[in-house]
Amino acid sequence: ARMAESLAAAGASGAVAAPPVTAVAERPERVPLSYAQRRLWFLDRLEGPGAAYNIPVALRLEGELDPAALESALGDVVERHESLRTVFEQVDGDPYQRILPVESALPDLRVEVIDGADVAARVDALARETFDLESEPPLHTTLLEVGPAEHVLVLVVHHIAGDGWSMAPLLRDLSAAYTARLNGEVPGWAPLAVQYADYALWQDGLLADGEGAIPGQLAHWSGVLADLPDVLELPVDRARPARPSHRGGVAPVALPADLHRDLLALARRHDATLFMVLQAALAATLTRMGAGTDIPLGTPVAGRADEALEDLVGFFVNTLVLRTDTSGDPSFADLLGRVRERTLADLEHQDVPFDRLVEVLNPVRSTAHQPLFQVMVALQNNARADLDLPGLSVSEVPFSTGTAKFDLTFVLAEEYGPDGEPLGLGGGLEYAADLFDAETAAALVERLGRVLAAAAADPGARVRDIPLL
Question: pTM above the 0.85 mark?
Fold first, then answer.
């Protein structure tokens, strides 16, 4: 939303927007995968099942729970969202979506009696359970019974069927369905305008059409990302293996309220967004750590430009490659100006699927690293995913998948008080254990914090002069 406000404020225009997804498509015998789904399907075939693309949710439920009503409600949600009852079969190596009938895809809510001391380990184990995408619906459901009035619900969605945004409508629909089932009713929600298969068919048609938005947007990215470095030289502890294990860890990030406030003020003074400040600071930090002056950073965008997609569970998120030029000994303010100009232009061209972009640019391919970028940065501002069940107190249970998709992934979220006052930024740095020790990741977090504090205090300071130690 803040990115959109910045685009409007800057008067950005020029790129032709993709047509909306407004109609239910006529289904062929075999529904194609979206571009993003094809990548995950290919990785699953190449590397075998793994937990790197699991999206877990673990919630503690305190109070009187009706497990039968919960299981029925989960069935209602699976019936409502076709993506949660889709398997991915293939003919002659070409995958397609097979949407299962509701009666053969109803989730079997596993109920396990467990001691409270064992909950954390069991939640982690469930978060890491793999999926057979060819024969198994992409949703696992487990209810841990800790006591008569205490349960932990663990839901795991494979990324091929959902994304971070999807968790809000999933839990919202589960809340409505459970409430209805408690009252002996079926949920009375309005039908969804479209399903994920309609989106996949729309995207397939859009990219097959030589007219419209996509050719111009592809031309933009072909120019912006020309001669991109194959691999960003990061301050690793170990040589990059030929095949990543996807083992990972997380170094926590906690920036205090006063720095949060100062960074927001810095962004306002330079007509930028907080995300742009973070992007500039991360690029500056990596440059100072020896990564060079041409810094490509991946960042996720929701990919739900059409209102018809907002309430769907599905894999819509797209990835943009934001190229940051830190050369020429700029001040932080000058660097932020470069980031702002480049990012606003790139956001106008966000309809091109990342995987289509990789096909067109055809960078050096390797099993050892992600193409186009190896570092991702995200400032989360999705709608909060809350479960609201009658008679139950619901709280989050922490978990760890122990995986990493990229070399480094910085994920931050803002906290605000009841009156809108900044309370700080929290999150974590997910790092590939093949490359980094925990101490190195923690040092990167500390140095990013120092760059941000220095930028807020004196944006006119040269990047090379900002103290890291």
Answer: yes
